Predict the structure.
Amino acid sequence: MTRRWHLRFALLATTATCFTAIAGGLNPAAAADLTRYAEQHLIWRNCSGEMQCAKLTVPRDYADLAAGDIQIALSRVPHSGTTFQGSIVVNPGGPGGSGIDFASTAAAIVAPEVSQQFDIVGFDPRGVAASAPVICMNGSQTTRWLLSDPTPDTRNEQNILMGLAREISAGCLQYSPRIAPFISTANTVNDLDILRSALGEQKLNLLGFSYGTSLGALYAQKFPSQVGRMVLDGAVDPSLNGMEISKGQSGGFQGALVRFAKDCANRSNCPYTGDWNDVLTGINQLLASLEDNQLPTSGFEPLNQAQAVTALFWSMYSPDFWGTLRSALRQAERGQGEYLQWLSNQATDRVGKNRYGSNQNSAFYAISCLDAPATPGRTGLAAAAKAWSKNAPVPEMARAMSWGNAPCSFWFDHLGGKPAAATSTTTAPIVVVGTRFDPATPYSWAIALHEQLPTSSLITYEGDGHTAYGVDSACVNDAIDNFLLTGSAPASGTTCN
């Protein structure tokens, strides 16, 4: 079967997706106190089309259950057939990505037999959207951060960026002091196990994309006997720290840009004449010109370099975006920035001058920076920016990857220790999926996670874009659908086109 589908990933391309395997357990008394959460009865109500919605009550702080509760927003698309195998929990990525609407998206892309036999359950992780949302920047602060120079050259420009980055951490404690310290990935994984129990499931079936693979890997580590049918697509390597992840992503996006340039050079509507090197030259010249000369738009401000960089990153998530990017670059060559700005707004969920459709811009940093050790200060970020951009096809984007880590240099707390490889004693088969030319989660990370999880099978998709399931590969789709239906994992080393 062939299906077209795009994930609305919250992963911001200019910053690392940080993940640390935090496996601290609860003491026996605290574990016993979780019984009232595990045995809660979910009340499902119709909320949107075929979807039903509910609230899951979980502890605010698993280390101090007296600190009170928060509620996790849930959604589900009930199974449509007479045979019921259970629930499949889905996560679209992030951190910071809402999973409520994603339940209906996922129900549409799994095989009909899967949606007939399983409830598809989405959730907003703690701190995200409708689940005790964390706010670290108000609307105007978010706009100021997103429009700031992502590649500061002078000491003064660097100090300005670092000052804005420092404000994000302070803002979390100012606007959301009761939730910001408690939205770690480890706590979300504990929430997942309470969700599993509240759904009446002995095992957790999970379909996780991008950051969702981090949730899955840590769940397999903390709750090995509760692992059900788990698919991890677009794998993150938990052994890497924030800067190592950013470096890997920088290489991934540079590789995707080269592939875009080669594709563009062979098309009649490519805005640049010549070969693929000429396409890259044109992009670099555009970014250089935007340093001092913004392009007019009909939006709230002219297009600046930060928005153009964001548009380029966003467009690499799927080759289906490449046509829009070609049109946007062609328009920019004619002196207009409308389309590039639209792409940037899509990436940042901007819906007004200082309005955003979700809290993803705050939640991304709030979760990422809390999870992992601090990133370097100004000097270290500058050094990384210089090193990563040295031989990069589009140097400005490589520099932006380093400087995007600035908020994590100042975070109020870092719950993760040194990143470590995932470990799990589960005997359940796990399917890891890696896309050969994935820009955001490089293929090498899928190999690494597969090697870290002894019971996993690796599917390789020889294609472009971020993640593989539900796109154009019948080979990938059929293998995963069969696994979800039967629990029989594909042969490790399976390669799909």
